[in-house]
Amino acid sequence: MTWLAKLLQTYENHAGVVGQFERKKNGREYALIPVSHTTQTAHIEVHLSLEGEFLRANVVDKEEASTIIPCTEDSASRTSAPVPYPLFDKLMYVAGDYIRYCDPPKGTPHEDYMKQLRDWCESPEAHPKVQSVFAYLSKGTLMADLIREKVLWVDERGKLIGKWTAAMGEKPELFKVLAGDQESAFVRFAVEVPGEPEARLWRDPSVQQAFIRYYNRKLADEDLCFVTGEYLPYADKHASRIRNSGDKAKLISANDKTGFTYRGCFQNSREAAAVGYEVSQKAHNALKWLIERQGSIPVDGKVFVVWGTDQLDLPDPFGDSFDLYRDDSSAEVGDSTHREFARQIRKALNGYRYEGTYHSRIVIMALDAATPGRLSIVYYRDMERDPFLNRLQDWHETCCWLHRYRKDENNRLTSFMGAPATRDIAYAAYGSRADSKIVKGLLERMLPCIVDGRPIPRDIVRSVVNRASNPSGMEKWEWEKTLSIACALVNKMHQKEGFKVALDERNDDRNYLFGRLLAIADVLERVALGKEEKRATNAIRYMNAFARYPARTWGIIQSNLQPYQARLGAKANKYNRLIDEVGAMLKPEEFTNEPLNEVYLLGFYSQRHDLYAKNGKNAESANDHNENEPNDGEDM
Length: 636
Hints:
Layout: H1 2-13, E1 21-23, E2 29-31, E3 37-41, E4 44-49, E5 54-59, E6 66-70, H2 73-76, E7 89-90, H3 91-94, H4 98-101, H5 109-121, H6 128-137, H7 142-148, H8 173-177, E8 186-192, H9 205-216, E9 222-224, E10 231-233, H10 269-272, H11 277-294, E11 303-308, H12 335-353, E12 361-371, E13 374-384, H13 385-398, E14 401-407, E15 413-418, H14 422-430, H15 436-451, H16 458-468, H17 476-493, H18 510-529, H19 538-541, H20 543-548, H21 550-560, H22 562-568, H23 573-585, H24 600-614, H25 619-622
Parallel strand pairs: 4-8
Antiparallel strand pairs: 1-2, 3-6, 4-5, 7-8, 9-10, 11-12, 12-13, 14-15
Helix pairs in contact: 1-11, 5-6, 12-13, 14-15, 14-16, 14-17, 16-17, 18-21, 18-22, 18-23, 18-24
């Protein structure tokens, strides 16, 4: 029950923003929902007078469609059974003249809706604006009014049109926002009262509080809440729509009375676990809000969310170092630059470190659904803020390399030093067309490496290294990105050796030296070919074979270099001398066909970067990246 307690604490710590809409980057709105409420996407908005007279109606824009609606336990959990929401709902519930324009629905949805709404309007907790809605709907003219206002559309038989075809002309607004037929349109109400600025019932706190008071009287008997340890009205059913408005999966469910969910151990589900109604509502609403506010982009339904119970905003453990700082400089990378990078990372994280209370805690949670109805917490970590930030700092400082695949605010490719994002690691390991189940599995496996400081699984590093060693199977921009990510992971694996992007000319490791030789051959041929020739060099074409049989393949590459050495003439002397110097550092017994390990990629990258820097241009510009290529992490 720890996760429920943390979510409850988060809700209560941010009770001041309950019901207040915020806007996401895509323009969509979201809010921390009050108790006994949920959210729905509305399609039609009806404006009424306080006397219950129809004023006007319009189609709701997609960006304004998120609507906070009152709900009961039954309506919040409804599937195919006709269970009405208390105030806002679909046409089949709210329209008394529905059967005049549509086929009769199953059951009696409108009658059930009106009976429930009448009970609220006749209770001590009745609200005048809600009574206005009841008075209008009692006339049974909603569909006719919407047709007259050209919000709904009928055919020549007087029935609602199912699908709008191109032959009918320009598509009306309602068909642009609806995924299904017109019958599925969701209706919300606004009541205009002179002198009151807020007519929208879904944003009126007084309407929300009136329903909360009304519904509290109808809650079940009290029981021991396993979260708070107090006797409270218990939740018989728990919330769905956690990840999005169409999500039917639940985190807590015990409705299988005929199976073995709890039978055999308990007489009823409450003996297994009882959660207070208000506790369940606040915890689930807090989780929905956090996912909307700062949850990671879901992969095949899996959602990751990181937050602090006191301080919500935290650095994303799945993000790269580019997200922590914006360094547009193209300075030559050396020890001083690496120290500057570490200073920037610490400075960025210190901004989170000194906000909030000293003992603030953070929670990391991953949610996934194996079936459409059951949602599970596949990863949960609750820890103090400082250890989390310390481990995140260590990750960015040790799993680092020089990358060039992110774009700045001017949409230009820029270099950045640091750790890659876990999503980019997944695509580097398995390719841009990898199955989503594999990608989300890798994201989950990488979390302990970042949060708990565990070693990166060897199979992940091996997969990235193998793909980086096979450039012929990828486009050039994708290979360059995979190469730098591979170097970052290898650097993390061998962090005790202290590898840097700057060339280590004293390093006599066999793998590092062979990587340097391959880089020299690549740069020599690339310089000889010139900018006009875009084909791959011999070093790049033989890279995979070189990693498996270095001595034999080096002989082939070196013989194929002769025409390019001749073309360069005296300009090739510096490359030839460098080949001799690096080759001389190899011991005779090391010049064999024993396969190279992953360290050869570090030698290859560092040597190539050093050569291009000495030639007066950085390695990235020499790679001739096309800025229109999909170099961002999500598109790889």
